[in-house]
Amino acid sequence: MNAFTLLKADHKKVARIFEKSEPTTERGVKTREQLFAQLKNELDLHARIEEEIFYPALKEADETHDVRA
């Protein structure tokens, strides 16, 4: 599995966590805490994949050198 595939899968995981958190109420504190802990873990992993794999690969690819933000 390449970094791009991992990042796309992470986007889907994060979206599902948000979908699960939307219907919770004020009484669902424990559920929300669990979902937000899971969300934090997923976002931390996502950031590591971007920073350690995806961005360095883009930097090395000749095709991306002419792209300006």
In a nutshell, what does this entry contain?
The protein is an all-alpha fold and 69 residues long. It has helices at residues 3-21, 29-60.
Give a verbal description of the structure.
The protein is mainly α. The mean pLDDT is 85. The two termini are 28 Å apart. It contains two helices and no strands. Helix 1 runs antiparallel to helix 2 (29-60). The longest helix is centred in the middle third of the chain and has 32 residues, at 29-60. The radius of gyration is 16 Å and the shape is elongated.
Query: How many strands, what sense, and barrel or not for the largest sheet?
Result: none
User: Which structural category do the helix and sheet elements fall into?
Assistant: mainly alpha
Overall spatial form: elongated
Percentage of helical residues? over 70%
Q: What sequence of helices (H) and strands (E) makes up the elements? A: HH
Number of helices: 2
Query: Taking Cα atoms only, what radius of gyration do you get, to the nearest Å?
Result: 16 Å
